């Protein structure tokens, strides 16, 4: 009889273990984003100070032997100057693009852009190399929340050309409706600044 109890006990414990393993894990927005972003091949650098952002930007440029970056954002130009990085304001397929974004999408690791960053350019017409500066306050749960955030933030003057980079391994294709006609695979570095 003891043998049956031991067998039954071990069987019931393993059932509990299976049940625990099957429960969905709920991660915080930042943990979820980082998990998905890294799994897609993105390169992630967490920064707690502007000095760290500048140091990491300089390291990225030096590590890749890039002579300059394209930058159209006035605030980011100041960071590039401090990082001793040459900049240009004309888009060029051979020059990495240093930019901000609209939102970071936690449930899939995507990065949402608009005409505020891209102008009228399609993602496919831009360089394969992106360096994105974002803050933790830009994290949203999903694409719907990101689009709502854009609509709310830019009331009356909603930007156009809303698209996202969803793959961080070059030459990978995606069927996302936001990226129709765009090759959105980019070699992407994310400088995530803790602002909360």
Structural overview:
The mean pLDDT is 85. It contains 6 helices and 10 strands; from the N terminus they run ααβαβαββββαββαββ. The strands form 3 sheets. It has a 4-stranded parallel β-sheet, sandwiched between helices. It has a 4-stranded mixed β-sheet with strand order 8-5-6-9. 34% of the residues are buried. Helix content is 36%, strand content 20%. This is LUD domain-containing protein. InterPro entries: FTHF_cligase-like_sf, LUD_dom, NagB/RpiA_transferase-like. Pfam families: LUD_dom.
The helix count comes to 6
Q: Can you count the beta strands?
A: 10
State Rg.
21 Å
Helix content: 25-40%
Q: Proportion of β residues? A: 15-25%
Shape: globular
Q: What is the level-2 CATH architecture name?
A: 3-Layer(aba) Sandwich
Which structural category fits the helices and strands?
A: alpha/beta
Mean pLDDT: 85
Taking the alpha carbons of the first and last residues, their distance comes to 60 Å
Provide the number of structural domains. 1
Task: Identify the CATH homologous superfamily.
Answer: NagB/RpiA/CoA transferase-like
Query: SSE order, as H and E?
Result: HHEHEHEEEEHEEHEE
Largest sheet: 4 strands, parallel
Report the CATH C-level class: Alpha Beta
Which regions are unreliable across 5 or more consecutive residues at pLDDT < 50? none
Short description:
With 196 residues, the chain is of the alpha/beta class. The protein has one domain: NagB/RpiA/CoA transferase-like (Rossmann fold, 3-Layer(aba) Sandwich).
């Amino acid at each position: 009889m003891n043998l049956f109890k031991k067998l039954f006990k071990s069987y019931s414990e393993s059932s509990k273990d299976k049940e625990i393993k099957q429960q969905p894990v709920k991660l915080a927005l930042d943990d979820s984003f980082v998990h998905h972003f890294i799994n897609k091949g993105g390169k992630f650098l967490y920064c707690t100070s502007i000095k760290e952002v500048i140091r990491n930007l300089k390291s990225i440029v030096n590590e890749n032997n890039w002579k300059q970056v394209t930058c159209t954002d006035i605030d980011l130009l100041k960071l590039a100057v401090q990082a001793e990085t040459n900049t240009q304001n004309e888009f060029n397929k051979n020059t990495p693009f240093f930019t901000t974004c609209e939102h970071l999408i936690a449930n899939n690791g995507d990065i949402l852009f608009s005409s505020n960053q891209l102008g009228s350019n399609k993602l496919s017409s831009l360089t394969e190399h992106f360096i994105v500066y974002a803050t933790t306050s830009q994290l949203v749960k999903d694409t719907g929340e990101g689009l709502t955030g854009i609509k709310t933030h830019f009331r009356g003057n909603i930007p156009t050309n809303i698209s996202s980079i969803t793959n961080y391994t070059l030459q990978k294709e995606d069927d996302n409706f936001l990226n129709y006609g765009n090759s959105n695979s980019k070699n992407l570095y994310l400088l995530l600044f803790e602002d909360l």
